[in-house]
Write a structure and sequence with these properties.
By secondary structure, this protein is α+β, with helices and mostly antiparallel strands. Helix content is 30%, strand content 34%. Helix 1 packs parallel to helix 6. The longest helix has 24 residues. Bound molecules: cytidine-5'-monophosphate. It is an enzyme of class 6 (ligase).
């Protein structure tokens, strides 16, 4: 497979065409951003860590029957994926109160939720990715009520599998963000990445953070946190 023209460059990844129809080449970048790009740094090794962690997680989900755009890891920082048209909604699943939920509802960070909740955010940098209701989504015309049911169900299913996975690693899955896309045939597939950039991951015993809050809140080394997650996931096996 040959890498083709650059299709899109985002904050954390570059996406290229390939010589295969409907298949793309993703390159992770060493850049870390937060607060809608206001805080920005180059952090050596971040691309490799997110690529390896996403590879292990998408492989695990695929083995558990969750279909995604992921085809295979190509190198330390690159992946081969199926082309999808991204639905401009961020699907956030929460097991524990943290981050914007804590701020919005005045609930203490770390409070366990009785059942997981799902939220939708409209992907729009100019608007700062606002939280949207199902009625907002209807007037934005980005997904049908049936699509939203599918996104909710898939979000809950991914949550169930990831809780099981992280439980064995002594990690508390606090919350995470998913993105989905449509194939030309109209299937909805899990897309983008699942990494410590997109999840909150706390050590079960010490509450130590291993995720992007290390960078957002300046509370430690992002690379050390992500390296810990990769090593608990058994990362040596995917660096071959
Ligand atoms: O900031 P907030 O508490 O809403 O984030 C919820 C979860 O979604 C966190 O795990 C965060 O890392 C993730 N997220 C993300 N990309 C965004 C917003 C949130 O990965 N643009």
């Amino acid at each position: 497979m040959k890498k083709g023209d650059l299709l899109y460059e985002g904050k954390a990844k570059k996406i290229y065409k390939t010589d295969k129809p409907a298949e793309l080449w993703i390159e992770y970048k060493d850049s870390a951003t937060a607060f809608n790009g206001e805080k920005k740094e180059t952090l050596a090794g971040k691309a490799r860590l997110n690529n390896e962690i996403t590879t292990l997680i998408f492989d695990y989900l695929q083995k558990n029957g969750v279909k995604s755009h992921f085809i295979k890891r190509l190198s330390e920082t690159e992946q081969h994926v199926k082309e999808v048209e991204i639905i401009p909604l961020e699907v956030v699943v929460r097991n524990v109160v943290a981050g914007s939920l804590s701020k919005r509802l005045g609930m203490e960070e770390g409070t366990q939720l009785q059942t997981p909740i799902v939220e939708f955010y409209y992907k729009d940098d100019d608007l700062g990715d606002p939280l949207v209701t199902e009625d907002h989504i209807a007037i934005l015309d980005v997904a049908t009520p049936e699509d939203l049911l599918v996104l909710r169900e898939k979000g809950q299913e991914v949550n169930k599998h990831l809780i099981t996975l992280f439980d064995t690693l002594n990690v508390r899955l606090v919350d995470f963000k998913l993105e989905f896309g449509r194939t030309k045939e109209g299937d909805i597939l899990l897309a983008d990445e699942i990494s410590p950039d997109t999840c909150r991951l706390w050590d079960k015993e010490t509450n130590q953070r291993f995720d992007k809050d290390l960078f957002r809140r300046n509370i430690g080394s992002l690379q050390e946190g992500y390296e810990e997650i990769l090593s608990r996931l058994g990362g040596a096996s995917c660096t071959k």
